[in-house]
Amino acid sequence: MPDLPFIEPFGYSHGWRDIVNDVSFDVEERRPQSTYSVVWQSDDTVALTLGQSVTVQAKASDPFRDALDLVPGVDVVFHGPGTVGTSISRRSGQSTTLSVTAIGGAVTITHLQVRARPVPTARVVKVSAADSSSIQRHGQRSNPGDAPWANQNDAAAIAQLLLAHYAQRRPTVTLRLVSADDELLLQVLTRTISDMISISHGELGLSADFHIESIEHTIARMPNADQEESGCEQRVHYATLSCERTGLIVPANPFTFDVDGRGFDDGVFDPTAADDPSQVFIFDHPTQGAFDYGRFGT
User: Is the CA virtual torsion 249, 210, 129, 25 positive or negative?
Assistant: First the structure.
């Protein structure tokens, strides 16, 4: 790929505020109950004329399974000369849609409920991980988010990924590219999120690999000196890239099948996203498709 010169403004952040070296998640462990109970109910009064229908969104406090059909007189309490026809949109989840239709005459509904097998929280387990060297150097920096719907193993994996990615600072830059010709325009337009690019800035002493995190394309109109009298303007395409330094270090001794000194006791797995196109495993390739040569990517 040819070099793409950028223009001002060039934004640079050292990445101190993004450091995360102490991660903790509260993981809810749920257990489905074997017996049925009321998982949602409403005492709102709803009046229906003959043939009129109403739909009600029923959202339970906990997920549920195997919801039962609504039974008139039990799950749908009403009075009036008519009766009701009912349906339920789904039987498992945390919400469902109830449909009630007046049949044979007008009815007034005074109570609605859904019976199902609830899946309540049995206990809450705290999953924690920390990088002691990062804490000693930068102070404790906790992760502000959570991991909804993750089990213990998933939460532990997320914690390790966060530490691997953010325990040390990751500088970020924002730069603007202007396509000067068709070849450069093609390169700018084909950049996508997560692409790795090399960025150099002489005044900052910066020369490193970065991953693209966001891209914003802009077409602006700029006055042209040769066209000022005619009132014409020249269109210019800008691409603003927000990037984060990769920080990945490919190990010198990656795990390789059938190679002495690179087995489970000696070799190490490549870090997340260490996908060198010249070395990653490719099917039907004469060398990269062989276990002794091609590495498994992420």
Answer: negative
